[in-house]
Amino acid sequence: MQMSPIIISMKTASAAIAFTFLLGIFVARWVVNIKSEKAKMVLDGILTLPLVLPPTVVGFLLLIIFGVNRPIGKFLLEFLGVKIVFSWPATVIAAVVISFPLMYRSARGAFEQIDPDLVMAAKTLGMSERKIFWRITMPLALPGVAGGGILAFARGLGEFGATAMIAGNIAHETRTLPLAIYTEVAAGNMEAASYYVIIVMSISFLVVALTNYFSLKERKYLK
Amino acid sequence: MKKNIIMLMIICLVFSLVGCGKNTPTDESTITIAAAASLKNCVDDVLIPMFTEKYPDIQVKATYDSSGKLQTQIEQGADIDVFMSASMKQMNELAEKGFMIHDSIVELLENKIVLIVPVNNTKEIREFKDILKADQIAIGDPASVPAGQYAKEALTNLNLWGQVIEKASLGTNVTEVLNWVAEGSADAGIVYSTDAASTKKVKVVAEAPEGSVSKVIYPVGIVKTSKDEASAKKFLDFLQTEEVKKVFESYGFVAK
Amino acid sequence: MGLLVEIKKKLKGFSLDVSFSIDGEYLGILGPSGSGKSMTLKCIAGVETPDEGRIVLNGKVLFDSEKKINLIPQERNIGYLFQNYALFPHMTVEENIGLGLKLPKIEKKRKVKEMIESFRLQGLESKYPNQLSGGQQQRVALARCIVYKPDILMLDEPFSALDSHLKDQLQMEILALLKLYEGEVLVVSHNRDEIYKFCKKLVVLDQGKSILFGETKDIFRQPRLHSAARIVGCKNISRCEIISAYSVRAVDWGLILNTEHPVPDRTKYLGIQAHDFHLLKTSPDAGIARQNNVIKCQIEKIVEGELEYNIYFRNKEFADANGNSVLLYKVRKELWDNRQNKGDVYLRIPEKSILLLE
Predict the structure, then answer these.
(1) Structural domains in chain B?
(2) Are B134 and B252 in contact (CB under 8 A)?
(3) Mind listing the pLDDT tens digit for each residue in A168-194?
(4) Is 60 exceeded by the pLDDT of residue A166?
(5) Contacts of A186 in chain B (CB under 8 A)
(6) A216 pLDDT band (50/70/90 cuts)?
(7) C11 — phi, psi (to 5°)?
(8) b/e sequence C186-205, b meaning 16+ C-beta within 10 Å
(9) Backbone phi, then psi, for C347, in 5-degree steps?
(10) What is the CATH number of the domain that holds A187?
(11) Tell me, what DSSP letter sits at residue C269?
(12) What does the alpha-carbon distance between residue C341 and residue C322 come to, in Å, rounded to a whole number?
């Protein structure tokens, strides 16, 4: 067993959750405030798509975007000298796209269950939108948002299909835990695979436990 | 509503049974070929139509899988007349265990291990030792993919393996390796020449240098339990005709 | 000084069309649920935007569709007591009260302490809202509004969330606390008694429209409109036909009634408050009865209340009775129990109590 897949996976999942978390909250807030129900529905569908699509489809779409023979990938390579595919950032991109819907949906749910009267009351009390967001909306949405973040982290950690397609399977660089497991199983090294499996299961268990802790933990103001 | 659903289910059932009916035997003889997956396109698209045109009274059915799996199936008594393997290993094992008609086995084809690059690649990779110019290299995982085993063998003999593995993305099957190169994600890759011939998006820049790698031989033979050895023999002979050799070559094989 | 509201807004199912103005007095907005009361408050507070119209508070234009003025809620300086109080559940009493104050720390603390004392919330400073009783929550919410010195205080159904046995006491408390506040007060309610107790001026809302505006007492005494009479709680309403300048026929009751004032031409209904009947001691002659607004009662049902009986009855001499023919008479128990005439009951409708409605 090598340590590198563990380290790469942790790095990837951490970087991914940093983006997903902020992006998810930002987009959820934006969607919640959209007035038109139709636009909301369509947008929600698109934003949730990566959750329901097979990861290989997401990988395919990402390849269409970032592949070196595709307009955007070509532009990045020729003008900025950046090759996204088969590099570590590609693992992060795959994880962000795949885990985003979980974060977005959790955050949206958390925002929507806040009593709109509270926000109105805050407004009539002269609080700025920013202060309302940080002092009212976020604290009240925190359990849902945190739970979503943890789930998104776990999903990012487990990402395999899209990662294999755009990041490849390069040892010490893009070989994440799921890829390492797949490689070992394909080679018949069940023992090596089982070590990785135990690690993934431990992390996942920890994550589920944390989620439950956040959702079940009685907030002191509800006692 | 309930009635409609039941009707629908009955209709589906009837259709599925209709499919079974097609199997009724006729006067014609039928042979079944088990072929390595890499032969699928070639056999399905060209060889079977060609053969049935020549011998209208012989029906040909084909099943494709990895050679190892096909070997297992034959060992377990699958109803197969002709076995086309992607490696001598499986054929030899079957022959030793007495599943094949010994003198029917021929070394039909050779597949080459080749170095490929994306068609518009600018890395100036022209021969095997240039492979290190690539930023990322796609090869099959030697632990599980035969093409990867050959690639490792060749690169080890060329003293390149140690450096290549540092930037190698290991595919779990040879198609994945091919696609990585075809999309330009990897700058170079090592696959079979037949794989390289299947897409216009990659360019073969070199064959593995003579002696660096064992030959990849595709043998063919008749299974002992064949019920129609005569037709199977006709198919084997057909495979060795000049016109079929040309077909094989167009698919990237070297005919022996 | 004062508040002027003239707004229109299209909503699902109905459109809001409200106009009134006040000048220092407490104003009540009375209307059934769904009549647009809360929406009116929200438009004034600026959390909803009317389609057109004007809102001016103490000379400051808050909203003017023509001049394209629409101040954000934060700039309006309006105290809004929400129906469910809208206390921030994750903040203590102290934090809730002090949150909107833009003052230096020490001053803020002093101010909050002052409010906590005035609103008798001592000892609850670090409690969370759901650890408080309904009345305490309401006082916190009110303190939170008042500490911020709003130009107007708007109370949305201030007592609907409270247990009824506490209501009276809490209403008195709130009235006392509101004295701490010098400014306009606007109370929204579907409860007539609350409005009657709290507000000098009244707007009656029906299906989004402000149908009446005036002195509360006047409107309760003479609602003028059929829908307004219902809303201010007139239980007995009948269609009517004008017979002469001083007499009408109550179609649903089968009665001819004399009026105190000339009957306006537009009169289509008449009403009588359940308390306004006059119980006759003796049976009058049939002829006199007819001339003097007297009903011979056929009692349908008597429902006993705490202090009163609710007596449902019909005109015994009216043959074409329908569903609208049942009247309600509310009477103090001792008056009813001690009535001398235990046989047929005769009620007189005093001329001055007849509400002539459009």
Answers:
(1) 29-110+217-255 (3.40.190.10), 113-207 (3.40.190.10)
(2) no
(3) 999 899 999 999 998 888 777 889 999
(4) yes
(5) 141, 143-145, 172
(6) low
(7) -130, 170
(8) bbbbbbbebbbbbbebbbbb
(9) -120, 140
(10) 1.10.3720.10
(11) E
(12) 28
Tens digits of residue pLDDT in B134-169: 999 999 988 878 889 999 999 999 999 999 998 999
Nearest-CA distance from B51 to chain A in Å?
37
Cβ–Cβ under 8 Å, residues C189 and C29: yes
A124 touches chain C (CB under 8 A): yes
Number of residues in chain C: 358
Indicate the residue of A67, A83, A186 with minimum beta-carbon distance to B172.
Answer: A186
Q: How confident is the model at residue B27 (pLDDT cuts 50, 70, 90)?
A: low
Can you list the residues of chain C whose pLDDT is less than 50?
A: none
Closest CA to B188 of B250, B114, B94, B256: B114
User: Chain B window 142-171: which residues touch A at a Cβ cutoff of 8 Å?
Assistant: 143-145, 165-171
Quickly tell me which residue has 């007349």 as its tokens.
B81
> % helix / strand / coil in chain B, to the nearest 5?
45, 25, 30
Contact B169, A169 (CB under 8 A): yes
User: In A, which residues are within 8 Å of B135 by CB distance?
Assistant: 83, 86
Token code pair at residue C132: 């408080």
Whether residue A158 lies inside any domain: the answer is yes
- The region, left, alpha or beta by phi > 0 then psi within -120 to 50, assigned to residue B113 is beta
pLDDT at res. C96: 93
- The chains in contact with chain C, meaning 3 or more Cβ pairs closer than 8 Å, are A
Assigned domain for A203 exists: yes
Q: Say if C and B touch: at least 3 Cβ pairs within 8 Å.
A: no
Q: Checking phi first, is residue B145 left (phi over 0); if not, alpha (psi -120 to 50) or beta?
A: beta
Which amino acid, one-letter code, is at B47?
L
A11–chain B Cβ distance below 8 A for any pair: no
Using a CB-CB cut-off of 8 Å, the residues of chain C touching A132 are: none
Q: Which letter, b or e, does each residue of B92-128 get, where b requires 16 or more Cβ atoms within 10 Å of its Cβ?
A: eebbeeebbbeebbbebbebbbbbbbbeebeeebeeb
The per-residue pLDDT for C273 is: 86
Each domain of chain C, given as residue ranges in start order, spans: 3-228, 236-357
CA distance B186 to chain A (A): 7
Flag whether residue A2 sits within 8 Å of chain B, measured between CB atoms.
no
The partner residue sitting opposite A120, judged by closest CB among C47, C89, C100, is C47
Q: Is A169 on the interface with B (CB under 8 A)?
A: yes
Q: Which residues of C touch A135 (CB under 8 A)?
A: 99
d(CA B54, CA B156): 46
Is the torsion defined by CA of A131, A137, A139, A144 positive or negative? negative
CB pairs under 8 A between A and B: 65
Q: Provide the 3-class DSSP secondary structure of residue B108.
A: strand
Give the residue on C whose Cα is nearest the Cα of A118: C86
The dihedral region occupied by B77, where left means phi > 0, alpha psi between -120 and 50, and beta the remainder, is: left
Residues of B in Cβ contact (< 8 Å) with A187: 141, 143-144
Candidates A125, A129, A218: best to mutate against C (most CBs of C within 10 A) is A125
Q: Is the pLDDT of residue B20 over 60?
A: no
Report the domain count for chain A.
Answer: 1
For the segment(s) C3-228, the CATH number from 3.30.1240.10, 2.120.10.30, 3.40.50.300, 3.40.50.720 is 3.40.50.300
Amino acid at C122: Q
CB < 8 Å to A220, chain C: 128
CA of B195 vs chain A CAs: smallest distance (Å): 18
Chains contacting B (3 or more CB pairs within 8 Å): A
Reported ipTM: 0.77
d(CA B201, CA B199): 5
> Between A88-112 and A4-32, two packed helices, what is the crossing angle to 10 degrees?
40
Domain that holds residue A201: 4-217
